[in-house]
Amino acid sequence: MTTPALSISHLRKVYRGGLVAVDDLSMEIAPGDFFGFLGPNGAGKSTTIHCVTGIATVTSGTIRVFGVDAVKDYREARRLIGLSPQMFNVDPFATPRQIIDWMGGYFGMTAADRKRRTDELIERFGLRDHADKRFRELSGGLMRRVILCRALVHDPKLLILDEPTAGVDVELRRDLWRYLQELNRDGKTILLTSHYLEEVERLCKTIAIIARGQIVRQGTKDEIVREPGGLEAVYLRATGAEPDHVAAPAAGAGR
Q: What are phi and psi of 208, to 5 degrees?
């Protein structure tokens, strides 16, 4: 039996004050999958990711990353994960080269290995002309590439992407899509959260929808998009909205 890339069983997270952010959530991601994790703001997506990566403390339940207990063996599990967060949590005066190299040091890579891997990622993600600029001087799309490179520097088995194309224009978004598809074809397991349903439909093989801290729908992308109304209608129904709440086309549209 193949060990799941990520196995979450009966996860519950209660914050101080009694807020239940995640309630009895269970799901599995197979090795090599490109897994879309959808839900409205406040549904529990980021909390789930924070529990997986050790940013948040688990109230109850188990999380295993390629069989490693993410609570009991946090350091070993964290080495298997690359996290690209939604917010830019970097020194704005550092260069992309420094940002990527520093993360390699965090994971215990030698100076020689960090340099080799940093150079490799800078080349692959088209950052050669920007590698020694200050992060704050980069466009939003280039910033996203740097954060992705930082997540990949230690060659993790599981890549977690939290809104990786937020604020990126159409052309750069498609560039990032191409990079992610290449990584997945090379065998990287990817967990993606996104509010762009087109992005999820284009990239993902499996989709789970979370609402009010619980998984309310899960299945293969092919199964879901074949349902009446496609992914958007399934998403709206699963999260408690109605598909007919979608805005009507503008007057004269399609003429």
A: -125, 140
